[in-house]
Amino acid sequence: MQDGKILVVDDNKSLLSALEILLQFEFKEVTTISNPNQISSFENLESFDLVLLDMNFSAGVNTGNEGLFWLREIKKKVPHISVIMMTAYGAIDLAVQALKEGASDFVLKPWNNEKLLATIKSAFLLRKSKKEIQELKQKESHLKQVINQDSNYIIGNSKALTSVLNLVQKVAKTDVNVLITGENGTGKELIARELHRISSRKNEVFIGVDMGSISETLFESELFGHTKGAFTDAKEDRAGKFEAANEGTLFLDEIGNLSLQTQAKLLSAIQNRTIVRVGSNTSIPVDIRLVCATNCNLNQMVADGIFREDLLYRINTIHIEVPPLREREKDILILADFYLKKFASKYGKPSLRINHTAEEKLMGYQWPGNVRELQHTIERAVILCEGNILKPADFLLSANTDLSFDTEPETLDEMEHLMINKALDQHNGNYSAAANQLGISRQTLYNKIKKFES
Fold this sequence. Notes:
The protein is 45% helix and 14% strand. By secondary structure, it is α/β, with parallel strands linked by helices. Helix 1 links the parallel strand 1 and strand 2.
């Protein structure tokens, strides 16, 4: 028995009884009415999966116009419902007209029971499929809203930040590729999300990819997807990040850390706006807004032969440089107050405040780790403080300062941090070259840097 509800509308009560007997063993609920005017008073018409509707109700009338009228009325109320038209007067033009008006099928009286049941079950499955598609679309829309919700905010009103946001406003209206550069911790991803939030794609997904965390062997699978059996662990078909971001925004962070081989693969996908899953030969078109970010000097990397010039041109239609926090002096206290309220609430210390001397200390610091460092500094101070006033001593800024090359390391971690800093400085921030010098993989180097920043 199908778990469905059917409504039968016909002025022949004997026919209604016959259909009720025939269908009661096939469907969960069968409702019959002999007067089509009752359709208008049905408050729960949308609860039915299928309607069997006669074409003629008035004696001596066989034009089918009455049935077409009620078909339109039903479709107005419940657009996705399946309706099968019934008539004793078969005419091709009448059947065609009914289908044009939205009927799922057309049957002639008298009918063969087996054929009728097959027609009804087919229409029922059609209705079920449409309902599932509608539910999936609603879930997809909800998921997109959840994914795009961002608890982080762009805080500040300094001239340097305002200039960036004005540029973002102009660029967001277009679909051009954008390259966002800036030091670590300046908020490049926040700028990318703001671009998406005010763009025409704001109701679609924002997919962020940390390129530094993807190993070279999994690059194609992660970005372009793969088919079942494409490699040992490919147990099912999987869409890549390009497909997942279709019609939305794809954000590629740390793009300066890609090898030349992976750069070539990425360039091909960006140029052609198509991808091919690993293990497949079928091209899949993708419609994305591409936003990239890096803290590397890509122009210098192009000059050194470690970044493709043609790829730089592709991703750099518009360049947005996010200023470091030391160039946003006006925003330091605004950000400090924002994070103070956030963490004071989180850790149950709502009456905390920063005294004037501590504010001067924060303002006089260079913030090499930028907004991320400020955030961590405030959180640590809130956690460790014992009173209601945060004083200069509560902000351990020296502990956040990057190790100088002249610093004498006291622990293995400090020695490792120092060596990594030196290698990155010597190679202008290029992870692959620095990793090669240090004798470790690029992935290992990236993981260690992430650990130091946390």
